[in-house]
Amino acid sequence: MHDQASLPKFQAEARAASRSILLTDVSEFYSSIYTHSIPWALHTKAVAKNNKAPALLGNRLDKLVRDSQDGQTMGIPIGPDTSFVLAEVILGAVDEELVRQLRTLTGLRWIDGYELTFSRLSDAEEALAMIQQVLLEYELRINPRKTRIAELPIEFEPQWLTELRSFKFRNTRRGQSYDLIRYFDSMTSYLQEFPNEHVMKYGIARLRTLPVLDDEPFQQLLCQAMVVEPGAVRESMQALYYAQNHYGLVVDSVLLAKAVNAIAEQNAAVGHDYEVSWCLWAALTWTLQISPNAARAISLMENSVVAILALDALASGLFAGGGLDVAHWQGRMATSELYEEQWLLAYEANVQGWLPSVGPGDHVAVDPNFAFLKNLGVRFYTRVVNPFVPGALAYP
Predict the structure, then answer these.
(1) Is position 395 within any domain?
(2) What is the pLDDT of residues 286-305, one digit of tens each?
(3) How many folded domains does the chain comprise?
(4) Are residues 104 and 8 in the same domain?
(5) Are 104 and 168 found together in one domain?
(6) Is the CB of residue 340 less than 8 Å from the CB of residue 70?
């Protein structure tokens, strides 16, 4: 195993004596993994299909993954280290089959992305067909948007990444203001040219530790960027938080509230849990009022993390304008819901004292498994506090 910093070294080594290159990756890799392909990869498909007993490690892993997601066989959890291992098990089996079929194979795989080099274009075309065939054996598919065959030499990394990484900011107030505008202009231009790349996320992440010399353009440009590209909301919030915590940036709460409400309203309507969660975190961190329009959209979301953050914001008085309707979430406060998809909400809203149980009694206390957790004081959520209010606890 190697880290990402060593990637250029292996790329250069693979390309050294080659004329053509094949670049591709697996489409929606983690969410498209078929859990039954885990035993296929460990024991071969023929063995696994004829032996579904738990004696096979692959079958046990398959069941554990399914049990962790309501019995679903499509997709594995995104984020846990266990998923990295399972994904590597499957693509490791794919690699072995590719080596067997193609014999002399030069190149590398980084997570789910392949970079293979060849002496002739025809060899690269043959390899692409083979990769498609082998991936289909595991119910996986290549990503056509990220697949290409080219003559070498080609760039080691996209131009946008090279430019944003090497961009220099001056250490004077006026100079940094001009540089920030040029930097955001570059990000905007590259975002339009490479809409499927994480241009804005990477570009804003680079600003996280920038010593902010002029609050105004820094905040204005960040807010504009995350409204236009909500996928970068986390990086934007981290940049603001870091600048306030380390460089004394005075956050413009009026401007930030407008941006947060715009993002929350737009993304809640289409079920984008990640973006809305970070907006609610920002509201709690900087004590921002959530608009009635955003509140109404949030009320309809089917996500425990969003619901818990919204209930925390409600308890903190951040829905002063109204609009948040908790009736939808209230219906989850029943013992049966503790074993369904929204179990986290059904448990956490009870132990935090935010929502009452449906019907008489305490729906958590009557269930032996969850009552055990409650009696031990187990909480899965730590309430967000504003760390910038004098006397407040520092947020980790």
Answers:
(1) no
(2) 999 999 999 999 999 999 99
(3) 3
(4) yes
(5) no
(6) yes
Q: At 188, list the tokens.
A: 């905007």
Q: Could you say which of 155, 184, 205 is where a domain stops? A: 155
pLDDT at 209: 87
Residue 284 within any structural domain of the chain? yes
Pairing outcome for strands 20-25 and 113-118: antiparallel
- Predicted confidence (pLDDT) per residue in 255-267, tens digit: 999 999 999 999 9
1, 120, 245, 288, 384 from 389: Cα distances, Å: 45, 64, 12, 13, 13
| pTM score of the predicted model | 0.82
Are both 172 and 246 inside the same structural domain? yes
Range of the domain at 17: 4-33+75-155
Residue 341 lies in a domain: yes
Nearest alpha carbon to residue 87 among 132, 26, 148, 137: 26
**E strand or H helix at 150, and its extent?**
strand 148-151
Residue with tokens 């050294």: 16
**pLDDT tens for each residue of 133-160:** 999 999 999 999 899 999 999 888 889 9
- Hey, CA dihedral for 385, 386, 387, 392, is it positive or negative? negative
